[in-house]
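Incident log, support desk, overnight shift.

02:14 A customer reports that sequence design results differ from what the structure should imply. Their input is reproduced verbatim below. On-call engineer (initials T.W.) acknowledged and began investigating.
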């Protein structure tokens, strides 16, 4: 059965355990907002998504409906990759190619530290930074 939506999968810990807050993030591709480079660090690349953590008491409607990165830090979830120095363009190309590939199960593994599976050979790890 073909999935109707694609989801991007990220796992931060290397022990394979889902035993801490925000160990894993599986976000709809429709919330993808873009990439940016952290100032002064040529081994980092950040992938941004509209905040989608549906927690009681947290209003996520603004990020989901406006899709604005300028709406405030609470509206953006960031996946920060450690990559081979100065390979940001290549990582973006590899991830974009994966996003555009037909996928039967709908889950795109972008970065899984536990199993050393990455969408690009230039990615060595991911850190998940969820909005409050």
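02:41 Re-run completed on a clean worker. Output:
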């Amino acid at each position: 059965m073909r999935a109707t939506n694609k989801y991007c999968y990220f796992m931060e810990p290397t022990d394979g355990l889902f035993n801490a807050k925000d160990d894993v993030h599986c976000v709809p591709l429709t919330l993808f907002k873009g990439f940016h480079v952290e100032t002064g660090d040529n081994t980092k690349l950040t992938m941004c998504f509209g905040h989608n953590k549906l927690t009681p008491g947290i209003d996520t409607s603004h990020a989901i409906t406006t899709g604005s990165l300028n709406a405030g830090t609470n509206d953006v979830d960031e996946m920060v990759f450690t990559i081979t120095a100065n390979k940001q363009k290549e990582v973006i190309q590899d991830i974009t190619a994966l996003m555009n590939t037909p996928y039967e199960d709908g889950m795109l593994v972008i970065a899984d530290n536990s199993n050393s599976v990455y969408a690009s050979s230039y990615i060595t790890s991911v850190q998940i930074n969820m909005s409050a």
